[in-house]
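Sharing a chain and its predicted structure for anyone who wants a worked example. Both blocks are below, sequence first, tokens second.
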Amino acid sequence: MAIPVVDPDRYEQQLAAKRQYIEQAFARFSPPTLEVFASPPSHFRQRCEFRIWHEGDDLFYAMFERDDETPDKKRVVRLDEYPVASQRINALMSRLLDAIRENPHLRHKLFQVEFLTTLSGEALITLIYHRPLDEAWEAEAYRLQDSLSVMIIGRARKQRRVLARDHVWERLELEGRAFLYQQVENSFTQPNAEVCRSMLRWAREATRHSQSGDLVELYCGNGNFTVALAENFRRVLATEISRTAVASAQRNLEANGIENAVIGRMSAEEFSSALNGEKGGRRVTAWALDDYDFTTVLVDPPRAGLDEASCRQLSDYPKIVYISCNPETLADNLARLTETHDVTRFALFDQFPWTDHCECGVVLDRRY
């Protein structure tokens, strides 16, 4: 992959290019004016991972990118700082290596470091090794944890040593209210917290005045949207296949005092079958699907987008909120969904500045 070159003076130019690309790619759907939500030009990623490169007595953070002269090979790029990463990560990068460099218990066969931080400054560091972790490592890791004022996890083959806790708590202020999110190490979270806040604010505005109906959500992850949107609806039923994400989503409902939402562990495909009455079982019975009046569906699928059966299922709902990380599959899905619905809001979220990646949000309302 290409390592992003951060140039804050050119940020508006790169964002304008993304706007133009999205407007042209989706013009055939006659969407309303594109809403564009910018990112901070630098220091926007709250989580990052780096390889650790050992070179004689030295060691440094490294990423890899293709060599133009030999495309089948990758060259090592040394990183002493990383302007894509949060200020907290950058402040910790050199301090961590300085502490590890002369400490054989922490340095020996360390090959990767992962950082997870929050806007409020919490930091969790995962050290990953090509060797078993012993008591000597743990003793030194505790000292390191105290000296850096962070939380540390050690990983090796079939080992995971959590010294404090395995998660951070993100706090996002939205419309005068603070929402808390448990974000677990080694599980998916939105990396750009400021853009995530823009996405949540946009989705809350798009679904306001929906309290007479219920929300069904597919691919809910750790409850990122579930938590922020619950107060807009009478009830919410959200599903996710990842066991870790489901547990975290349930914890986030508790942390925010949300009592009108239920998180179910089931794939989107299976859940669509349950909604159609084609799948039963204990979990489906417990949800009492007939008691819901789903007026809105929210989907945040993986890059592959939705299959034909899922698109057909979505067409039954009066309102669709579609969050997409892949414009190509979004366009494919919209070709099917606009047979019954009109695009009434359209947004570009610059989740990953300095890359070609575009995150989009679409609201579709059913035609009558």
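Comments welcome. The chain has eleven helices and 17 strands.
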